Amino acid sequence: MQRSPQLNAKGELQHLLSIEGLPRDILLQILDTAESFVGVTEREVKKVPLLRGKSVFNLFFEPSTRTRTTFEIAAKRLSADVINLNITVSSQTKGESLLDTVANLSAMQADIFIVRHEASGAPFLIARHVKPHEHVINAGDGRHAHPTQGLLDLFTIRHYKKDFSRLTVAIVGDILHSRVARSLIHGLTTLGVPEVRVIAPQTLLPAGVEALGVRVFHDMRQGLKDCDVVVMLRLQNERMRGALLPSAQEYFKHYGLSADKLAVARRDAIVMHPGPMNRGVEIDSTVADGPHSVILPQVTFGIAVRMAVMSIVAGN
Amino acid sequence: MTKLPEADALCEKLAGELRPLVKSTTAMIGLYTGGAWLAERLHALLALREPLGLMDIAFYRDDYHAQGLHHDPKRTKIPFDVSGRDLLLVDDVLYTGRTVRAAMNELFDWGRPASISLVVLADRGGRQLPICAQHVGARVDVPAGMRLRLKREEGGKLALVLEPQRAA
Prior knowledge:
Oligomer: heterodimer
Low-confidence stretches of chain A: none
Order of helices and strands of chain A: HEHEHEHEHEHEEHEHHHEHH
Mean pLDDT of chain B: 94
Largest sheet of chain B: 5 strands, parallel
Strand content of chain B: 25-35%
Helix content of chain A: 25-40%
Distance between the termini of chain B: 24 Å
């Protein structure tokens, strides 16, 4: 059997590239470790010395504020030195290749590369070419994967719902273009969630999505019925131009999460969103700010999850 | 085969030794896993007012770069302000002293205690750092290649056991 490119010869996590292909025990190791890091953030000194003397390079080939910032905070809480590179305005515009950029940073003694790239698979390419002591963490590649977002979603679900084995989880919106949805679906099925649903118009679903082990719904009231967890996805404005959808207003009418649609879910359902939110497009403000929303705790947990991933890969 | 002392008897002995020293500022912290069991026992025997603190030193270990992060670290929980406290730091077995060093480093990230005293059930010697315990249940000779640890049996009974050292 060919080894997963994210695992080392001992089967330990060497890089985090995608939730797909990660064994259940590694997913649980990350979630358990993150649980301990939540404790660190409650102390007077919110820092541990694990990555002292290590350099973490944030390589963002695509703009991002929240993900880059939470990686930066996580690395700093592990005592690493953090270097932020905004490549869109740097060497790439001068024609340097991706691997040349990485080789140069490696010559500056990097230990961890956090990579976001518009091309699916870019972090895999980098992981194949880095030195044995260097680690790559995918912070979002094209439409492919966003594993730390998926992990923080899993962490949030476990935090509020405890047991994956009796949950119904619905993921709503632009599944077609969402790397978050893919990562999360793989994680949920690996951890034994019995029912994962996707709710979207046909134009926003990838062909053959059922093969991922999900139930497909096109109607919110049917899809949300008795759900424990509702994950809303961001509707990217550029999709409107691509003739996939008639208008934002029309989309909200059918697929926007409002209090009355949410009413068919379980009474203790939680509502999640990876951000940034389009209020009034995929989610109504009364829900986003309401009692079911755990959108801000997701951001906080994201720091602990990223601390866990960095400290696990850097130690392997 | 070395005859190991009775853990329960050592608990009683340590509690007797600590009882006259308890002050209003005294609080206790146990180190996972064996030290936490011992601390639970001592905390009850001494009827300390502050709830018990529990600490996992995984994020402060000095072998992280060689061994990586330990699987399933427990969450450190210290339900009181450590600043100004006279802390009793409790572990099952004192050996190289590296765990205690890590624990003290973590403690100071929680605040500045007035004092820290180390309480151990067994001291097996072999220190690699200048650390000693103020309260020792027993000194135990451990044959080379063996590990001494505390075990909690069904029903909660504590017992010291010798087992072959795991390969590092």
